[in-house]
Amino acid sequence: MTNIFVDARMQDDHRRQKLYEGALFLYSPTPSINALVAFARELIEEAFHPYDPRTAQFELPVERYVEILAKLKPFFIHHPRSKELVKGTLRELGCDLEQTYFDVPRLRSSTSNDYLTTGIAFAFHPHRDTWYSAPPCQLNWWLPVYDITADNGLAFHPRYFDEVIRNGSRNYNYDEWNRTSRATAAQHIKADTRVQPKPEQEIALDPQIRVVAPSGGVTIFSGAQLHSSVPNTSGLTRFSIDFRTVHFADVSGRRGAVNLDSECTGTNLRDFLRASDLDRLPEEVVAPYDQGAVPRDHLINQPTIVPQTTADLAADAAQASA
Ligand SMILES: [Fe+2]
Fold it and tell me: Residues 6 or more apart from 5 whose CB is under 8 A from it?
């Protein structure tokens, strides 16, 4: 069963617990998300001028298209305004900025009709982020920059939240990947030869969940959730923003979703910045993750807090009216 919470009025501690159990959370755009979307649109539209970015793919040779993305994406990702607006988003959606760490927001594009599905616009096969050295407590935040359709967004494959998948994560090491593959993304135009953790068995893509939200509608999900790019047949390029968060108590307490099948090594935790002041996580809480996931028997999926009591419910109500 997959619970989907829409505009939930819930404390972040409760929300994280439900996300670790496989729920999805959807939120309507907040002021900071609207500003983030507006900022992204401004950069995208400038980069593709005089074309409409959603159809520019039909006007430009793919090499030129890649060149534009190769400049646009890092500019957005590393711009101080992007970080500032992610921070605002987290505040507006009830995260404690002293405890919540995020990594820089990515700008992604998914072109239609297989125009470009590799390298800098990689079309993601079904995967869990935890196969890519994400900790079990990682949460992913995903939002479209322009309205999407059912045919150009993101798909979830919820049956695998509780089901082991034979996969290639044992060959993945985050540091190695950073050294060799990431920087070359823009070179992979026709085919992507980078080694990525993939399922090593047939995946039943259905039943799948496709969340169709208007621009700025954000979906939050566990990094252990199996998800993929929907093959884009919409006739329009999809632009989206995503970023990840972790909560300090869950990193240090090794809480999160149960890790069924990830065997990668290394950790992406050194990328995360504290929302309040952009400080990094202390090395002593990060280093234990270099070994990869804890063996399955020892994996932890303990509630961060006890099940809801009257006091908790009152706190949720206070959060809702804050
Ligand atoms: Fe992912």
Answer: 15, 18, 23, 24, 25, 26
Cα(213) to ligand 1 centroid in Å equals 18
How far apart are alpha carbons 268 and 135 in whole angstroms?
Answer: 8
pLDDT at 318 over 70: no
Cα–Cα distance measured from residue 68 to residue 96, given in angstroms and rounded to the nearest whole number: 36
pLDDT of residue 99 exceeding 90: yes
CB-neighbour burial class of residue 172 (10 A; exposed 0-12, middle 13-18, buried 19+): buried
Whole-number average pLDDT of the chain: 88
CA of 227 to the centre of ligand 1 (A): 6
Distance 297 CA to ligand 1 centre (A): 25
List, as one string, the DSSP characters of 197-211.
Answer: --BSS-----S-EE-
Q: How far apart are CA 308 and CA 248, in angstroms?
A: 21
Reported as half-sphere exposure (CB side, CA atoms, 13 A), residue 171 has a value of 10
CA of 15 to the centre of ligand 1 (A): 20
Q: Is 244 exposed, middle or buried (0-12, 13-18, 19+ CB in 10 A)?
A: buried
What's the CA-to-centroid distance between 130 and ligand 1, angstroms?
A: 9
DSSP-assigned beta bridge partners for residue 143:
241
Residue 307 pLDDT grade (very low, low, confident, very high; cuts 50, 70, 90):
very low
3-state helix, strand, coil in the chain (%, to 5): 35, 15, 45
Q: pLDDT tens, 130-163?
A: 999 999 999 999 999 999 999 999 999 999 999 9
